[in-house]
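A note from the maintainers: we've had questions about how concatenated examples are separated. There is no special marker in the raw files; a new sequence line simply starts the next protein. For clarity in this README we add a label.
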Amino acid sequence: MRKAFADVFCTVHITKMLNSMLTYVIQKKYYFCLNCMSENKTHYTSDDFSLSRANTYSLLLQADVNHFDYAVLQDKQLLQWGTGFSTDELRDPSDLRDILTANYKRVLIGLKADALTLLPAALYEQAHIADAARLLDVKDNEKVLVEPLDEVNYNIYKVDEALLYAVKDLDNRQITHADMGWIKAVSANYPTNTSLYVHVGYECVSVLNYHYSKLRFYNCFSFKNHEELAYFCALVCKEIDLEPSKARLYISGDMNTTDGYFTYLKAFFGEVNLNSASVINLPATVAAHQILSLAALSLCAS
């Protein structure tokens, strides 16, 4: 079983490269604009969008305990997209009442986990699931969910029950882990051994690495600033024995090439790119990397 982050962290010493991050930011000036879209906003609405046809649409929701993003699709066509709404809106719709109460063909919901661990499929038995769940330190207000991550791993994760309650009234819903679609999208695009796939969310970053197209590393980390983001990416490199100077980062989420987070990462890793993979049809005004994780929930439909 993959080590928990706490186990990895205790064995890691801060390298010269990680130390250099602290001095580099003093010498350079950056414009830091992570989560620029965190203020709730509907970014795009198609001229073809009409809730009178909602029964032919899919509603995609990606939520943590404080925020959610949403998109409305017809097949693979984006019709509407919004980000940064409070989860209170899910419990008691106001600004998005029409959107959240429409009768959709399907509702795909990706929930952010408070903690997760992976269990090899070969060990998939109820007793082993219970053992693995104990590693998550589940509280009274949390619930454990289990689902296949890929052909050889199960994802065991915990979510706040308040988040499950917030989406309970949505009809035709299917709940999955928030990263599930993103993982499917990455794995389908021939990931290379030296690539780190990084999804930046609301003060949370998910990191993937593959070895000959087989999952080698997956974990999520909470972070507060550019230094912590770079640190965790470097920590993953150390865990998989990859020199940061040889690592290629492919970033999705609320980041762009002109903000300080992106520029800061470029100083320490061999190559830093925005992830241009697209799983749905997008208008020219919507950048693929910004909506990738949300849009990829469409790959989870069953």
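[label: protein 2]
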Amino acid sequence: MKHACFNRRMTSFGFLLVLLTLFSSACGPSNNTTSSTKAGTNQPFSFSFYANYDWLSYSKKWGQDDVSKWIQQNKKVTIDFINSNGAAKQRLSQMIAADDLPDAMMLDRGPDVDRLVQANKLVPLDQYLDKYPNIKKYIGTETLNLLRAKDGHIYQIPNWYIQKGGTNGQYWTAINTKIYKELGSPRLETYSDLESYLQQVKARYPGVTPLEMSAGGYVYLYPTFTENRSLQNMYMFGYPQNNKLVSMYDDPAYLESMQYTSRLFREKLISQDLFTQTQDQVKEKANTGKIAVYIGWDGGDVLQAANSNLKGTVDNPAYKVVWPFYKAGLNKDNIKPGTFSRVGWNVNVITKQAKDPEAIFAYLDWATGPEGQRVFTFGPQGLFWDKTDSDGVPMLNSKYAQADKSKLDTYGLGLYNTVGNTTFVDHCKIVTDNQLPADQRSWATNAQATIVYKATTDDTQFGYTQNDPNGDITVLIQRIKDIDKLAMAKMVFAKSDSDVASILEKEKQDLQNAGLDKVLNFETQAWQNSLKSLKG
């Protein structure tokens, strides 16, 4: 299943702010002056850097904007970027075959990193962890232990990790406040409440979609039809029971969630284009107020512009984010469908091509600390801020208030942060947002700080359940996803609850034939290994 964390882009500060609304918690201390110059000296150094993504391209030369120029002058570091030119997989394979790797790289956790470790191409980083303060302090020993290779060494530094006690997650439930008020602001918490409300919307607003979900055709209601589940359970097809992962398809709550969705679809209370419409089409409905209720993982992207277009504000939003709906009788406090892993998004590695790997590590250690994160996110001191508060959060100045927010990337903001310290940056984002005039504050930032982040589950223990170096399980997982997607569509289009049940029974048989038990056993072992790593 598609997850928001896999669709990040770093090409503009505007998108960075959307990306940063995936996170929340508190900042750490603001003092950090760790040297990132050559292995503890004040001598300038440079290193080559490759990002293994088709979509990522560094168009400017280092030193041509405020951020990189400040780093070059004050930290004596120059980065020479190597672009994939839209063919990342081929480019990486070519570099490996030619034994011509860059000094450092950013890439996804998993098979590519494992392949490089096995080929003895990466520098083990354990030797530097106690010498430089930030990586070990902010990422944490538990999270670093999860990144250890089979040989016991750490070769990876995570990007957009979450500090222990922090949070993250994307599960949005929002209501159109104009329609809601016009219908008398009824109680709207359980799925029984929701169904009754959608019937009222359908009867009174013929041009409005009563309930809209994320584009792409996936139905994410299962975690809210039972307690202590999240989207992660759907991604790995199961949930823990007696120290093993068992199939979610055998959980009565899964059948109930699909029967509910199918019933809403039959009654035309949910978009009839659920499986065919694009993200842009969903946004267009939202922008014109044609969605009464929205449920999905991408609400920040879908509804942020709509709230602005409909003249909504933080205090009086056009779309109000509410706690996820849940089955009547369940404990609301145990309904937290959003999911995150403290390991974050992707990782940085240093290759044995590097002449001074310690200097690169020192730079990355500085970069993930408070000073580095401030520079990457808000620019150097004197640009958009002149001082910080006691937590190290920048106090934005008048130049920032007057700046064109769509062009902040021209200063280098949001372009170079490959060791994102989610917890620090997100707290800074929330505090600085509150410094802005009411009409400039972010609807998404406020919504996530007050509701979205609180409705999430820390699923770090399951972060490596599908990491398959050999590829055999990966093939089975894709087969299961294909079966699941087709069966889900059939259940939504079913003509009755009994038909939904019959389709699910057929799907369960197909999944067994496709190797679901083998996948769950593999995931169980990986999960148990992660638990051991987290305990040290």
